[in-house]
Specification:
The protein has about 475 residues and is of the alpha/beta class. It is built from 17 helices and 21 strands. The chain has a 6-stranded parallel sheet, with helices on both faces. The protein has a 5-stranded mixed barrel with strand order 17-18-19-21-20. A 3-stranded parallel sheet has the order 7-10-13, sandwiched between helices. Helix 7 crosses helix 9, helix 10 packs parallel to helix 11 and helix 11 runs parallel beside helix 13. The two termini are about 20 Å apart. The structure holds S-adenosylmethionine and iron/sulfur cluster. S-adenosylmethionine (SAM) binds next to strand 15. Iron/sulfur cluster binds next to helix 8.
């Protein structure tokens, strides 16, 4: 991630930027895009916030805990900023992401050490905003007319390769669903799909750089409706079909989806597109229709079960994953039991589960009938125990099977590489003696799964397949 500068030009001496991301994959990817932009501005990335001339906290507002983390982080940075100032060094502190969007100027009132507040739709303006922030406190939480993706540089081949063979590509942002608990429609704005041509161009340049797997991102990615050059509107299924024709790309995934937008064409894509991995993250949130209605989810438990049944009838091995909220206002023991029932009925490969957290500005935050904290905790524990049991069962069922694994990074131990199965399970293998780890990164090989350890599967390479013979990632 190092950017080179002429050593004899002090004006162009590299400054260091540290970006810390909280929250979802979209935030992780936003941080990558900001890093690309900052590299063009002469910043090199540093892992060490204490050593940085610019620190960006890329924040998450989805739950109260996530938002509060930001203020404790700012408190720590304030001390370091003062120490650096005593050494004559400037430190700019920026708050980006969804807390920035939701709280705007309030952040600077509460934490005056912050120099810049920038919302997720304004990252492309960072270079100008940073200049402004040197002279005065600066806030940009606009939803600008221009498309930020038109202004964000595409990452260079070198930068893409540094991130590994699996990459994110944002195709859709924002949300119009207004689930009653969720801040996303307020922090990320209305649902917008990127044009088909822009997505295909970015995917092609990724494939040319050697990327093997693309995860299409969107807050509501299966609501994708991008306009093609001929004026037609493409759904996510159409986009996936076109992406799967790109040479070199071996794997496609997408996240996060809404049950309402799981149309038949997308379900069929799981049968018809070999590059589309057998993995579906489809949040259900709750199993009680009464709670789903109060959540404004626009689907019932039975709708969800019908989708799962249909997908599994076409792709029986698919890994189904989900999100759950427990302790939504008014949730009774019987409602919670409905959630446990839907979990038992579906059998999830893995899932995320959270205690309901009231978010300012959302409909549910105005409702009374809060569930006591102790009840939320007990329900979360019960749900997570069941989900863990299912996850272990799903992973254990892979033992003895041979699955293609895309190797992404060195493993925890010497001589080991870590990769992902088609079901997004982490898999570790020992490479043949004498081989360089780098020669295996970016390859896909058949791996016989032999063992399930705490968080990952272990296996042995059976035979390299597909891309495996084309040389390693770093070659
Ligand atoms: N678009 C996705 C969907 O339709 O389910 C969800 C995206 S949201 C960024 C990620 C997850 O955070 C949600 O699925 C939900 O489980 C959780 N979440 C959102 N708001 C929450 C809240 N107020 N309290 C607890 N969890 C919440
Ligand atoms: Fe939030 Fe997802 Fe509901 Fe949109 S669909 S409001 S992102 S939970």
């Amino acid at each position: 991630m190092t950017v080179q500068f002429p050593p004899d030009n002090p004006e162009r001496r590299a400054k260091r930027a540290h970006i810390k991301s909280f929250g979802c994959q979209m935030n992780v990817h936003d941080a990558e895009r900001m890093a690309d932009l900052l590299a063009r501005e002469g910043y090199e990335a540093t892992e060490n916030a204490d050593d940085a001339d610019l620190v960006i906290l890329n924040t998450c507002h989805i739950r109260e805990k996530a938002a509060e983390k930001v203020y404790s982080e700012i408190g720590r940075l304030r001390v370091r900023k003062e120490e650096r100032a005593a050494q004559g060094k400037e430190t700019l502190i920026a708050v980006a992401g969804c807390v920035a969007q939701a709280e705007g100027g309030e952040i600077i009132r509460r934490a005056p050490t912050v120099d810049l507040v920038v919302g997720p739709q304004s990252y492309h303006r960072l270079p100008d905003l940073l200049k402004d922030a040197r002279g005065r406190k600066t806030i940009d939480t606009d939803f600008p007319d221009e498309d930020k993706f038109d202004h964000l540089p595409l990452p260079s081949k070198k930068r893409l390769m540094a991130r590994g063979p699996s990459a994110f590509l944002t195709v859709q942002e924002g949300c119009d669903k207004f689930c009653s608990f969720c801040v996303v429609p307020f922090t990320r704005g209305a649902e917008v799909s990127r044009p088909v041509e822009a997505v295909l161009a970015e995917a092609n340049s990724m494939a040319e750089a050697g990327v093997k797997e693309i995860m299409l991102l969107g807050q509501n990615v299966n609501a994708y409706h991008g306009v093609a050059p001929d004026g037609s509107v493409w759904s996510l299924a159409g986009l996936l079909e076109s992406l799967s024709e790109i040479d070199g790309l071996a794997r496609l995934r997408y996240a996060t989806s809404h049950p309402r937008d799981m149309d038949e064409a997308l379900i069929l894509a799981h049968r018809d597109l070999p590059k589309l991995m057998p993995y579906l993250h489809l949040p259900v949130q709750a199993g009680s229709d009464r709670i789903l209605r109060a959540m404004n989810r626009k689907h019932k438990a039975a709708d969800y079960l019908r989708i799962i049944e249909r997908v599994r009838s076409l792709r029986p091995d698919i890994a189904i994953t989900s999100d759950f909220i427990v302790g939504f206002p008014g949730e009774t023991d019987a409602d919670f039991e409905d959630t446990m029932r839907i979990v038992r009925e579906v059998g999830f490969a893995t899932a995320y589960s959270f205690k309901y957290s009231a978010r300012p500005g959302t409909k549910a935050a105005e409702a009374g009938d809060a569930v006591p904290e102790a009840v939320k905790t007990a329900r979360l524990h019960a749900l997570q125990a069941l989900l863990l049991e299912q996850q272990n069962a799903f992973n254990a069922a892979t033992i003895g099977r041979t699955v293609p694994v895309l190797f992404e990074k060195p493993g925890r131990h010497a001589g080991q590489v870590a990769g992902k199965s088609p079901y997004l399970q982490a898999v570790h293998v020992d490479i043949p003696k004498g081989d360089e780890i780098s020669a295996w990164l970016g390859r896909i090989a058949d791996v016989r799964i032999t063992e399930l350890r705490s968080n990952s599967l272990h296996g042995e390479i059976v035979s390299p397949v597909g891309e495996a013979d084309r040389g390693g990632w770093a070659a």
